[in-house]
Amino acid sequence: MTDQQDNNTPAPATPEPTPLHANSLRLLPWSSPEGKPCFLSTDGRGGMVSRFADDVEEAQTSVAAEVREDAIAVLTDRKARAGDLRLALARVTDALGDVLRVAESRGARLPLPDDDDGDGDGDGGDSGDDQDGGPGMPTATAV
Questions:
Q1: HSE of 119 in the Cβ direction (CA atoms, 13 Å)?
Q2: By C-alpha distance, which of 9, 23, 40 is closest to 105?
Q3: pLDDT digit string (tens) for 16-55?
């Protein structure tokens, strides 16, 4: 047999990427001129607008890291004036808003957990709720 593929043998099919949430809405990292959230209807395959939104999210998180460093510098400067502190706080507030939007958008795109135990909570295990209906704490095991 040779290294060439037989002309009668079909080429292996390229697998289609599996979308996380087919036909879902993605929260975009910017707002409308009226300040309303913007969404993208997506099939989860990463089109041009999705890639641009990914780039904007990356830039926003990078800027937030820089703003944090600047704010730390202002806070540690004992001679910082009230105007410097207000400016640092305003920049941190803007960056925090951007990062919270990125977190909300990315959290909404996480795959849902399997529900193997059938209790409907999506954790795949014991319900974990304690008797008062709150989240359960791990129990200590005596050795």
A1: 9
A2: 40
A3: 433 444 558 899 999 999 999 999 998 777 889 999 999 9
In angstroms, what CA-CA distances link 16 with 44, 63, 82? 11, 35, 56
- Whether pTM exceeds 0.70: no
CB atoms within 10 A of CB 40: 15
CA 23 – CA 12 distance, rounded (Å): 27
Please state the domain extents for the chain.
Answer: 24-108
State which amino acid sits at residue 29: P
pLDDT digits (tens, 9 = 90+) for 109-126: 888 787 565 555 555 555
Grouping H, G, I as helix, E, B as strand and the rest as coil, residue 99 is helix
